[in-house]
Sequence to fold (327 residues):
Amino acid sequence: MACSTGACPPGYACLDATSGGGAQAKQCRPVAGAGAQVACGCSAAAAALKLATPCQVVTAVGACSGQRACGAAGLGGCAGKIAEAETCDGVDNDCNGKTDDGALCDDGSACTVGDDCAGGKCGAGVAVVCDDKNPCTTDACEPKSGDCGYAVVAGAKTCDDGDSCTDSDLCAGGKCQAGPAKGCDGGPCTIGQCDKTSGKCLFANKPDGSGCDDSDTCSAGEACAGGLCQGGKSVCLCKTDGDCGVFDDGLACSGTWYCAKTAAGSACKFNVASVVVCAPSLNPCQKSQCVESVRRLLRATPACASRTRTAANSRTATPATARCSAT
Fold:
């Protein structure tokens, strides 16, 4: 019975007591003559039936439900589970009605942090990040120690050396090596330079009068003017084979002329190899000669033909080797 000081009947005192639910309160409790508290007793029937009343086992971690049972010595102490810190086992260890809440666990890998317990199992937390900011190494965490390792990339892996004016950079020995410089060629009368910031080519004109080459072998003494290569004087007697047509007789059998070009200039030359030479006829009464095509004006390919010799023009014919008839 709840009480306040001095409100209990004779033989009882208002003392601290723990309720069946574990709460602390003032209650009227039986006392002995000297005022000592007397333990609550159980009737013979309650003891025989082993009746019990609910209670709580309280620790600094939490309070777990238990029971106080009637025995021969009266109502016993609170028997129940003792509250413990939560572990990842799927059990409400601290008796707060929640399972594995706030339980610390370890997934067995040193390469994760903040591992989380769920359903009695420890799940991996956040992975440890290993990054040395070097594209020429392979970064990895060692599961046992949690240390980061950086292995040199094997083979020719592409990378970026941070210079916008180099191309095709490649890894070598764990470092990004610069590739070839970006070409900035704007022509014979400009100076090209790569801009380090943008990687774009910037061009400036060479001073007027600077020597240049317009790629024409028939000109010499070219010079820059306004960023353009202006042609010099002509040093060629011809530029194309067509310029040598003035020396050609128009007959394909007699060969052709061509424009021979050298570093010093050019000139028209006769192509000896273009003369058509016919193989001798196997018939002594015939001779081989080149016959112009009727389309010789179009430079059609000539052909070799054999024509019968007469006795008058045959110097090698004999009765024993050929039959030639005189005309």
